[in-house]
Design a protein that fits this description.
Elements (H helix, E strand, L loop, with lengths): L3 H16 L2 H9 L3 E8 L7 E2 L8 E2 L1 E2 L4 E8 L4 E7 L6 H14 L7 E5 L15 H23 L2 E11 L5 E2 L1 E4 L16 E2 L8 E4 L6 E9 L5 E8 L11 E2 L2 H14 L10 E6 L5 E2 L16 H20 L9 E11 L5 H11 L4 H5 L5 H13 L3 E11 L2 E5 L3 E2 L1 H10 L4 E5 L8 E2 L2 H4 L17 H19 L1
Parallel strand pairs: 4-15, 6-7, 14-16, 20-22, 21-23
Antiparallel strand pairs: 1-5, 1-8, 2-3, 5-6, 8-13, 9-17, 10-11, 10-12, 13-14, 18-19, 19-20
Helix pairs in contact: 3-4, 5-6, 7-9, 10-12
């Protein structure tokens, strides 16, 4: 017979294990990465609705394909964060902040731990119309609620997960759209002067000299799978391509970002209808000076029917993502997370006294013959210059940096030039970095100081609204944030 004392201790241990298992279970769960995903349809219900992105009305009468808000929530037991992609030109910060607050009230997730970026499709409704056409006002409610719902659903779907990352090049669908032109081929800009480079100058070899910048050819992929079944849960991809376009007239569309999400399940053996819970999402990288037009390429691209080029680019991007995923040696569950959000203050650009005087004179012209003599887009840029003269002196914008094991994600609320993205990737302390543009708000283009000197559409006062060294300020801040996250590993 065992001594009574020894028996009592053993019995106490058994009782404790039966009655108080939760702390031990929590400690075990805390060491395992969890992930949840969701996709919410945010297609407009009321038409017609304007699709911003140009200099005049562009009314959609119906949707060609669905728009979505897609969310991935990650939790390592200490840090919980959400990464969301929205099919929109550029969701305003006010709408994003409202959606984040709504989501935070329904799940244990802080607003500053949510990254919400836009795809930059040019065929989606505006994001922040509060007082205006009833269709646009109604859409803002759909958009805000959809972003919040995607986060809430993904949070409720958390389960043990494993994650990995890789890249695969796709150089033949990205082209720098800023070009030096041959002598005497540069037209006047809206301010009556001449730039050194032109955006989208056409494809004629009689005009083109050389591109003014580079491209980033990589499709970066973050792959998430169920830790137990090893079934795929999510693909979060990133490509520095502005958008494709060529949508059928008067239709809303998610562009190639949505078509990529539709194709990706088939590439990796998930169900195409999404019934198994797999979600694919494609974020816009640093594509402020990059598009899908093959300038000065021989032989030229054949003509395409509406949506055809979107299908081609989406298919090739999905192929590249598949190749990248296959390069991942192993998905890991013992991955720790980190996230930093930092607000910075930037100076808004202001027109000079001479520019303001000219802008007011242009807006005041009523004679049609005189207006016809103005350079292209002179009137809208005169209006933008006047608006900037009345705006605040400064602008507050959020920057975010995320650590997922040895993977980094940077979020920038601008249409960021590819040069900045390549620079961040090269200087990052992490072996693999993903740079996301148009994140947590939309504030126009972000050229580098060197590109500012060349002029062109992306640098014009009104297209670019912040001080000319902003890309340097943002890069330095993000590198500081990445260095801090690297120390936490």
């Amino acid at each position: 017979m065992l001594p009574v004392r020894r028996f009592r201790i053993s019995l106490a241990s058994i009782v404790a294990a039966l009655v108080f298992p939760a702390p031990f279970a929590c400690a075990e769960d805390a060491s395992v990465l969890r992930a949840g995903v969701a996709a919410v349809d945010i297609t407009p219900k009321d038409f017609p609705v304007n699709m911003p992105g140009g200099f005049g009305p562009n009314m959609a009468e119906k949707a060609h394909d669905a728009l979505h808000a897609r969310a991935l929530v990650l939790d390592d037991g200490k840090t919980k964060l959400a990464i969301v992609i929205v099919d929109n030109l550029g969701v305003a910060r006010e709408a994003i902040d409202e959606a984040k607050l709504l989501a935070s009230r329904k799940c244990d997730l802080l607003p500053e731990r949510m990254l919400v970026s836009s795809t930059h499709t040019h065929s989606a409704p505006p994001s922040n119309v509060i007082d205006g056409p009833k269709e646009a006002v109604a859409y803002r409610k759909i958009l805000v609620a959809g972003i919040a719902e995607a986060i809430i659903r993904a949070h409720s779907d958390l389960r043990p997960a494993a994650i990995g990352a890789a890249t695969h090049p796709l150089p033949d669908e990205v082209f720098n759209r800023r070009w030096f032109l041959k002598p005497d081929k540069m037209p006047l800009n809206p301010f009556g002067g001449k730039d050194l480079v032109k955006m989208n100058p056409g494809t004629s070899p009689d005009v083109l000299l050389q591109a003014a910048g580079s491209t980033d050819p990589d499709v970066s992929v973050l792959s998430v799978q169920d830790a137990k079944s090893r079934k795929p849960l999510a693909i979060y991809a990133n490509y520095s391509l502005h958008y494709v376009g060529g949508i059928p007239k008067a239709m809303a569309s998610a562009d190639y970002f949505g078509e990529f999400a539709r194709l990706m399940p088939t590439r990796i053996g998930a169900k195409a209808d999404g019934s198994d819970g797999f979600v694919a999402m494609l974020s816009n990288g640093t594509s402020g000076d990059i598009n899908n037009i093959p300038f000065n390429v021989t032989p030229p691209r054949p003509p395409r029917e509406p949506f055809e080029q979107i299908r081609i680019v989406a298919g090739k991007t999905a192929d590249a993502a598949w190749h990248a995923r296959n390069k991942i040696p192993a998905h890991k569950s013992d991955v720790s997370l980190g996230m930093i959000q930092r607000e910075i203050t930037l100076r808004l650009r202001k027109p000079t006294a001479e520019q303001l005087e000219r802008a007011k004179a242009i807006v005041g012209i009523t004679d049609e013959a005189e207006r016809a003599k103005l350079p292209p887009l002179a009137e809208p840029y005169a209006q933008r210059a006047i608006a900037l003269s009345k705006a605040d002196e400064t602008l507050r914008v959020p920057l975010q940096a995320i650590r997922i094991g040895d993977i980094a994600i940077c979020a920038i609320p601008f249409e960021t030039f590819v040069e900045t993205g390549l620079d961040l990737k090269r200087r990052s302390p992490f072996p693999r970095s993903i740079i996301v543009g148009i994140a947590n708000g939309y504030n126009g283009y972000l050229p580098t100081p060197e590109q500012h000197k060349l002029g062109g559409y992306e640098t014009w006062l009104g297209t670019n609204k912040v001080q000319e060294d902003t890309s340097v300020i943002i890069t330095n801040n993000l590198l500081e944030m990445l260095a801090e996250l690297a120390k936490q590993k």
